[in-house]
Amino acid sequence: MSLDAFLDALKTDRSLSDNVVAWHVAPGRNGSFAPFPDGVPSALRDVLARRGIARLYSHQAETCVHASAGRDTLIVTPTASGKSLSYNLPVLSSMLTEDADRRPTALYLFPTKALSQDQVAELHGLASELGDAIGCHTYDGDTPPDERRIARDRCDILVTNPYMLHVGILPNHARWVSFFRRLRWIVVDELHHYKGVFGSSVANVFRRLVRIARHHGGSPTFIACSATIHEPAAHFRRLTGRNPVVVDRNGAPAAERHHVFYNPPVMVPALGIRARAVDHVRKLTRRLMEQDVPSIVFGRSRSRVEVVTKYLRDAAAELGMPESKVATYRGGYLPALRREIEQGLRGGAIRMVAATNALELGVDIGALDAVVMMGYPGTIASYFQQAGRAGRRSGLSLSLLVGTSVPLDQFILTHPERVLAGVSESPVINPDNPVLLAQHVKCAAFELPFRRGDGFGDSPDAAELLRWLASEGGVLLERGDKYHWMADAYPAQDVSLDFVDPDSFIVLDTKDDTSLGMVARSDAATTIHEHAIYQHQGEQYHVEKLDWDGRRAYATRAAVDWYTDAETETKVAVLTEDERVETVAAIEGRGDVHVTTLATVFKRIRFYTHETLDSGNIALPPEELDTTAMWFALSEELVMRARLREGTRAGAVPGIAHLLRGLAPIFVRCSPADVRGFGEFEHDHFERPVIMLMDSVRGGVGFAETFFAKRRELVLAARDALAKCPCELGCPSCIGLNRGGRESKEAAGVVLDLLAAWSGTVRTASEETWEARS
Amino acid sequence: MGSPFLDRLRRLGVAPDGRLAAAGAPAPRPSVAVAAPAAEGGAPPVAGLEREGPSWVLTRRVSIYTRHGAAPLNPIDGLPTWAAAASRDPRFHDIPLEAWRFVDTETTSLHGGAGVWVFLVGIGRYVDGEFVVRQHLLAGPHLESDFLDAVRREIEDGRALVSFHGKSFDAPRIDDRFRLQGLEAVCRGRPHLDLIHPVKRHARNLWGDVRLRTVEERWLGFHREDDLPGAECPAQYFAWQRGGRHRLAEVFLHNHLDIVSLAALARRLLPVYGGAADIGCPVAAGMDRYEGGDPLGGLALMRAARPDVRVHRPLWVRACRAALAAGDLDLGRRLFRQVEADHPLDTGVAALRRRIDRLTARISQVPTRRQLAKERPKPHT
Prior knowledge:
The complex is a heterodimer.
Chain A: H1 2-12, H2 14-17, E1 20-26, E2 33-34, H3 42-50, E3 56-57, H4 58-68, E4 73-76, H5 83-96, E5 105-109, H6 113-130, E6 136-138, H7 145-154, E7 157-160, H8 162-169, H9 177-181, E8 183-188, H10 196-215, E9 221-226, H11 232-240, E10 245-247, E11 256-262, E12 266-268, E13 273-274, H12 277-290, E14 295-299, H13 302-318, E15 326-329, H14 335-347, E16 352-356, E17 370-374, H15 380-387, E18 396-402, H16 407-414, H17 416-420, E19 426-427, H18 434-447, E20 450-451, H19 462-473, E21 476-479, E22 482-485, E23 504-509, E24 515-520, H20 521-527, E25 533-536, E26 539-547, E27 552-557, E28 562-574, E29 579-582, E30 586-606, E31 612-617, E32 623-634, H21 636-641, H22 652-667, E33 668-669, E34 675-683, E35 688-695, H23 703-709, H24 711-724, H25 741-758, H26 765-773
Parallel strand pairs in A: 4-9, 4-10, 5-7, 5-8, 6-7, 8-9, 11-18, 14-16, 14-17, 15-16, 17-18, 19-33, 23-27
Antiparallel strand pairs in A: 1-11, 2-3, 12-13, 20-22, 21-22, 23-24, 25-26, 26-27, 28-30, 29-30, 30-31, 30-32, 32-35, 34-35
Helix pairs in contact in A: 4-5, 10-18, 12-13, 16-24, 18-19, 22-24, 22-25, 24-25
Chain B: H1 4-11, E1 50-52, E2 55-63, E3 67-68, E4 71-72, H2 79-87, E5 100-107, E6 118-127, E7 130-137, H3 144-156, E8 160-163, H4 170-180, E9 192-194, H5 196-203, H6 212-220, H7 233-241, H8 248-269, H9 282-291, H10 295-303, H11 313-325, H12 329-342, H13 347-364, H14 369-375
Parallel strand pairs in B: 5-8, 8-9
Antiparallel strand pairs in B: 1-2, 2-7, 3-4, 5-6, 6-7
Helix pairs in contact in B: 6-8, 9-10, 9-11, 11-12, 11-13, 12-13
């Protein structure tokens, strides 16, 4: 087999094998099967038998038994293990065993519209073959009015997304009475997808949903599916407020899979600059093409994928292969084109596909033998989802990760065991973020009056919030023993599930006034100030004018060989100290902070050489943010021991903040933009050097709490990453560029060592006096 | 205020109405009257409002011999038949005028959704030489089930609904409230003459809009003075509920006039379906009858159409086709001349022209053998 030849080359060819930093073989596994549970009607068994399903994987049968008994069930198994049948089975069984007028209903939720399409196709197929008039309807923004009415009146299975549920269905539940009265199932696919602001909002939407179902007499059971994550049950509980039965013994068979981690060599040792990942991907994919191995290349951005596609096409030409054997697969492709590519892959007409990460979920592009990832996809769940693209048929498969130089990639490449254990970071959510809570309690009060003393999920603050909205807010009216909505508004319309702060700027092309993109207000001052270079799909645009109040920026396409980088001054005021542990090394704590960020100057920097051409001032209002943070306020002993006051060694403080932020995604499922790092040598509040990690969302969605709980691991990971970083002067993979070079890198190492070593030692009174004496 | 949670909310820029101020800016405090004790024990908010069991009702009587603006209110024969045509619902044939219920509601928002209250339901009916309007007020959100009971009795006492825009606005809102209380819907399925639809068919091309205000000015000769705009009605209800100063009496008057206008409009417009009105469009009425199952009556009405009306193209084209299909080439040509004059470049109109030319040519031709065969007397068998 041709993949064998490629694997041999990877082992024996020194130009490749020298860069392989980890090689792990996951052995193949036989399936574990179970018969259909008793409750599955024969009609359903017949339909499945016709599709070649005569028995179930053990986890499918297990799920069916638990769910049918009315237990909330969480399925935690890898990609391609037949999850959708796991939930379709109990749902359809229950529908077939009841009369049509008392037939239970099911709500299927997928995080986005695109994700639901393949699932719906399968479900429609099953429902129509069953022929028992099970009404299965999709209800989203694209559903025409007539079909909406039909869905409302005759729906047994409703497929929708959280956005539609939030703004369309729940506020109008009077039109859905018959659906909610019979509601028995809430199916939530891709549970790990519900994280950050979105997850926190959806948790509140679930609180509203269950309230409404109960009001109409429905008592729904949740069935959820998740990729393998840390503490999946805890995430389920935070999201739904319930404790699930966890089904995590995967019964699906698997083929042997090789996981190979590949780190391009260091080219400039002083700066830790490595060979570009894309060049090595080019080399590796060419070998794959020579061996005719059907493969997919994942890239982190569309522009990179386009570059890779060009390389693949060039390689095809050199090898005398037709260009049509190479395809690109991007978001926004129509189903027909998707089917065409899938068909091409199955039939062998297409051998190489380049795709963005956006396509890792829910889209079935068929079976391949090798997956090449250009850069770590950000989370372990994504890694396995992408790796799962290969080896669906049988035999051997390969997952090849080619690292880039960002801190996270380098950490993963030096700690492959973290990924290969197969357990993903836990998603962090905080349904009780006060801003989100206030908004969703409003939506809930609009939907149904609250009784005095009613809770809202398990929020501890709901009662107080309701009193406030009634007494001062003038949107609720307390009458009888209830709070009634009494205002001329439709609150769900003003509440976004994706942003706490929906305030953003639109960037317009001066040429034809078309929209180039949106920029969050918090980033506006640093990315679209006047004279900034705004990057859009690999092209540069010069910002001519920024209309701050009108929330618009006007930019002109400019072919320049420089970009701009803004400098900011950040002040962080500590408002509350919700937790405080004082050790010999530091005050470790977390609480509320007020952050003021002022963009001061911007520099024009030339591409490749990074030389500064010139600079200019930015005169825009400061950005204010109230959020939560966790911190280390370094003790005097530590400052002395690390000699932070000497030379440029103080640069270690912001440097460590940079490093911690870069490593954050190892511990929680988040993107770098969700977290901000901050380091200041003389911080007003503590009168000590402070290293902080902050939630970048107003009110916080739980990152600070999580990082505080995991601060020990975070420090150890940072110490490790720093020690293993081959650069000499500090680089983007560790403490960042221009933070004081060799001295501050060395100092950062000492600080992290001491934080790790001393932090277990909680300071006692006698030590305090020792400090005072010395 | 001393509560850590509320302090935090304020700091995060959440205003007491739950809205989000721009980050960092202090949230504005809305000026809201402090909630007064529940309204049920207090004096009626509007003079003449009376208790009926647990419900508040205001009853006003209008003699059928008075005029609403320039429009008469007195019933005439034929209204049920014409209503059947105008609503295209044959059930109206058997429903006497006394069993019609003229309905208009006031709600706390135009947005819709479960948080919108129907706080005033006015229902008018003909009884013993009078037009009686009874307006039911929701005395407080906690008293809704009593209020809905009263509304249900009022509606179920009649057999049909008459409204203006009620099929898509008032009726679903009322039904939603019933469903939210766990009760059967009361409006759905009932014969319902929503006058906005015939008004659209009759007058869409004459006026810029088809609001009830416009209908009153153009057809009823009724002009409102100092009328409270509909958009300000919710605020008056909120003010009363919170114990503040309110103009609820004006809301009642606004609602009352809407209902009397409904009756006057029905009385004034429906006769066009019998060829006995000086307003409206006989072609529109004719098509309502034609498409509603009375083709002969419809064509007869259309023949009476004045030639000087501005033409609503789709309706006219349909009417023209109907005339041709019925073999009335003369009427077809007449309707066509009007639609052609107004829409000379329209492709649908061009198609119609070809069809008329074809038919005209066929008629002027020597009769075909088949036509002759048809005309030849059948041999006795």
